[in-house]
Amino acid sequence: MKSSPPRRKCSIRPVVIGIEIAEYMNSLKRRNYSPKSIDTYHRALVDMDAFLDKTGIRRVEDVTAQILSDYRLSLVERGFKTSSMAVYIRAQRGLFRYLESQRRIFINPAAGIIVREQQRAIQRVPTEQEVRALLNAPDTSRPCGLRDRAILETDYASGARRSELAGIQLDGVDLSERTVRLMGKGRRERIVPLTISAATWIGRYIENGRSQFPGSDAGALWLGQNGPLSANAISSIFYAQSRASGVEPVIRPHAIRRACATHMLSNGASPIEIQQLLGHTCLKHLSQYLAVSMVELKQAHDNSRLGA
After folding, report:
1. What is the per-residue pLDDT across 195-207, written as a single tens digit (0 to 9) for each?
2. Is residue 267 exposed (0-12), middle (13-18) or buried (19+ Cβ within 10 Å)?
3. Active site residue 29
């Protein structure tokens, strides 16, 4: 009688934490997360991996909700701020949610973790008068001044991020339609309108200023003495022109982004319109601007009451 061959034991491949973290990072790249976000999440997950290693855990199947709670306590003991802890825990939740979606784990130990965000103070928004002073600061009799005025006007009109401003290409500007093409976070492209003033100053810069800089045959719209302007160069222009305007504190690119959104909301624009202009993926990112508008609304209400 022939003996039957021995049965092979059916086993699930152990999921090694370090390998899965690397795979999760690759999935974020495929989903067009920014390099900065990917680096932050990777740093957070490597820190978690080091904690698990000290406890002798090397497989994600062995991670429990209690172990993740112990890890959160270790962050507190190491003096992490609430905002930093929120980032680390968000990265942790993303990893285990990804593993669950890929059927690498059957129970998600991070499913019940709540991320408590620290309430951020409302950041100051430049007034319309302060923005006007900033826009009028450049000496437009010089090529640099023409360029700087065009940059400031473009930022106030579009609410572009500093990196988005630096990335504007010459062929991304349509002066006849008064639009500009911006490349946002995650390589998401959007076309936004320009004000008449912004389109006018961009046109003057292209016609009378841009050709005075090296690399005028390149694709970048904004040029300096060393060719296309970087995001840091954009910041330097804001700093210099803000000082020249006499406005205090110094107005930086993101302050103009806040001013663009807040002033538009104050003048009747809808949150949906602001969301599309600024390139936010959801309305929750507008909370800062909505909060500022509510403060202004309360002040206007108080000032309009009898006896005020």
Report:
1. 999 999 999 999 9
2. exposed
3. no
Active site residue 289: yes
* Cβ contact 147:209 at 8 Å: yes
How far apart CA 45 and CA 56 sit, in angstroms, is 16
Quick one: how many helices (H) and strands (E) in the chain? Answer: 12, 5
Please give the single-letter amino acid code of residue 74.
S
Is residue 221 within 8 Å of residue 173, measured between CB atoms?
A: yes
Residues 204-231 have pLDDT tens digits of 999 999 999 988 788 999 999 999 999 9
Classify residue 186 as left (phi > 0), alpha (psi -120 to 50) or beta.
Answer: left
Whether residue 109 has a cis bond before it, omega within 30° of 0: no
Identify the active-site residue in 93, 147, 257, 263.
Answer: 257
Q: Is 257 a catalytic residue?
A: yes
Residue 118 tokens, joined: 């620290």
